[in-house]
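Marked as duplicate of an earlier ticket. Keeping the data here for the record.
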Amino acid sequence: MNSSTQASLVNDLVGLLQLAPLGDDRFRAESQDIGTPVVFGGQVLGQALMAANLTVDANRPVHSMHAYFLLPGEHAPIDYSVERVRDGRSFTTRHVVARQQDRIIFEMSASFQTHDDGIEHQLAMPETAPPEGLRSDYERRLAIGDRLPERLRTRVLHPHGLEFRAVEDDDLLAPKPQPGERSIWMRTVAPLPDDPMLHRALLAYASDHGLLVTALRPHGMSYLQPGMRLASIDHAMWFHRNFRMDEWLLYRIDSPNANGARALCRGSVFTRDGLLVASSAQEGMVRVRR
């Protein structure tokens, strides 16, 4: 891709997170079909976070969000309504509900805080291969494009404004059992505006990529295999420090448990120089029809 194409893809991604005000703390956003049968959960996470932020003072960045995916969303506009739960001296709380055609498909609580000083420590960044020399997810999909189901080809073989490079280059069509952990480098393919909230919303968007599928690795399964059904149930994020989404970030994911047709996955996000900037956790439904 040339630089103008990359810039256009990032502009489209940024535009996806721009919400139209409807009045009374209500907002509307468009949806993007990236090849998933329902709307991508990361899109809803990022848009809901932007909706909440539009009702909060700029000097209070978001530090945590807890969300539930209630119903599958359609590839259609989504309305977000924000409830101003609390405005304290240091903390602000917002509750967001997402609707499509009078159906509540998603809800989220988010907390924002003033900049305060305190104790500091963090988890050490694991040693891993650098992003240079790794194949991107887009390149991996192109390599097997002729073997993908026809219903998936058009969308999943289309370039995107976010680039992901998995350290573990698993076979997407015939995986083998592996440890339930993986590392993914990620960034936008072109520079972003200097808006910290936009970078956090884009990380929320990106955090849904590769998270739940990590639970498939111990079983030698792929999300592309027939009969596989994956769906996010809930998603939580904590933002620890500032970062830029247009610079390489390492997403270290593990899956400590799966049972009852559910799997739990956790993620830690590091800058390239080892700063822990965010953490995530998600439980999702994992069902295989045989």
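See parent ticket for discussion. The chain has a mean pLDDT of 92.
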